[in-house]
Amino acid sequence: MLVVDSDADAREGLREELHRAGFKTAPAASADEVVCRLEAEEDEVSGVIVRQPLALEVLRIVRTRDGMQPNVVVRGVANETAVTEAYTAGADDFVALDAPTVELLGRLRGLMRNRDYLDRLAQKERDTQAMLELTQALASSLDFSEILHTVVRRLAEVMNVDRASIVLSPDGDQPEIGFVVATSDDRAIANLQIDLEKYPEIQQVLRTRQPLTIADTTTHPVLDGVRETVPADQVGALSLLPIVWQDQSMGVLFLRSARRGTLSSREIAFCRSVANATAIALRNARVMQSLRDQTQKVNFARFEAERRLRALKRYANLFTSAADGLAAVDPDGKMLFANPRAYEIAGVGEEEVRGQYLRKLIDPADHKLLLDIWRRVREGDFPRGVDLRMRRPDGDVRIVSCSFSALLESEGAILVSFRDVTNDRETAAELLRTKEFLESLINASVDAIIAADMKGNILLFNKGAERIYGHRAEEVLNQLHVTKLYPEGKALEVMRMLRSSGHGGEGRLESIRFDAIDKNGSLLPIMLSAAMIYDEQGKPSATVGIFTDLREKLRVEERLAQAQQKLAVTEKQALIAELAGTAAHELNQPLTSVIGYGELLQRKLSSGSPEHHAAEVIVREAERMADIVRKIGKITRYETKSYVGAQKILDLDKATDDAEGGPP
Question: How many domains does the structure of the chain reveal?
Fold first, then answer.
């Protein structure tokens, strides 16, 4: 409510009274402010309360504007001249300045009630006029398709929606197919077939014969399962009303709006009337329309067949003799035709799959992948070389590599080419398992296995190489040159031996003792075997070497040599002890006889005679010999001492157990 008064105190006081009474108000102090308010809030201003002397100028401004005319109440001194001028200028009421506020409120509410009544009456008149136009159009003898288009176009204008359509229910032969016979925004659409499985809201209205209002397409449960196919930026709300004739659903009146919301009860009642009138017209024209549709279908099918035949005639031989399966499908994924190889791969006959969906040939496990592929195809992105599993009627599952492309000179048809790659994929899987096995085998080897290309870049470095050299594989592969694994110049020496024929043949190097360098620069004694790897042209492409760590072996050999040396000494000592025992035993008896006879001679010979002296010498030297024999008999180890020149003789004193420091 716009309150116009040049007196600010009076204006604000009246606004407070109006606020308490539940009115929303806005102030204006002059005619210019009234103009600004009307331009800014034209749809919001339902009434104007203006005080004289501004009344006449404000009335002139309000009544000369186009569009909605608000109620105008003039307040002023109640005299005949003032009242006459106000009503003459277009005032809806006149209230004296000294009248109580309750009288002004009562007058305002009465004016608003009258305005609402007049608005509803005018709207009813407009609806009646629109309904009259529509029924006249339905009853005319013009072309029925044009009539239906006029009806939905006029309905879309009256209801202020983006599109109004009439969808007829399916016939008995094709229960899943509906027909869009007219739509408000495209005059060319007539008898357009649609798959009702994609329109659950139409199915529900046809089944229940009750109106359905979807205020928000992004949340309504009836659209679950197809919501991703509904463009949310174009379809915000839907209203569907059944077209019923004698309890039979003939079709649906379909209203679509980008704005979310619902129709008012008046709008729904109007649409019901249109639907009922349409039902009568459809019933009267159904036979004729059916004949026309049938003729149109036959003509269209014949024309389409002839056009496709002309377009595909040049490809007939290619299709028939192609080694790959070739199939043409429509944009919805239904099979149109295929070549013999396609039926052979799928294990089906032509009649079994004609008109069927492509997904029926695909294993259920790959249906989601097929759905993603088809979404890309519809966007113009045609995948190539995609593996899908095809389930044949006998239960056998074959892997087919599929490529998709647009079929030229056709309306949206897709060409699917595929080949059976089951054996190829099984071979590839077997090769992968073999590769993984060989990698495991190489890594499980205790020996180092290293491969490098002809430039010296290391390509293979197994776990044994990591253990022996101390490098991790990621530090070596394509980073460390193979020459860094040998002392300087040794890598070139290995290559020379590989290229020569003196070490097992050209391109081979049989096991040789060699040295390598570990991560810390220490020498590694190794046993090296190597070979050249040749490409298909017989040119060397890489080298591979097997390195056996000899450090532990050398330590074992050293301990063995020491043990053998100790064993030889022990055997020599045992031999000497046995020889000494034998010699002592054999010499002891003759020495005993010599000593006995010497002592006998001493007794027989005169003391002091030369013979007696000779006998003493014999006994003394024989006893000395006997002492030596005793020492020989006690030899337990091999000890020598220097003799004449560089000769060595046995040291009897150190070799016997009686020697100083020997065993007791």
Answer: 5
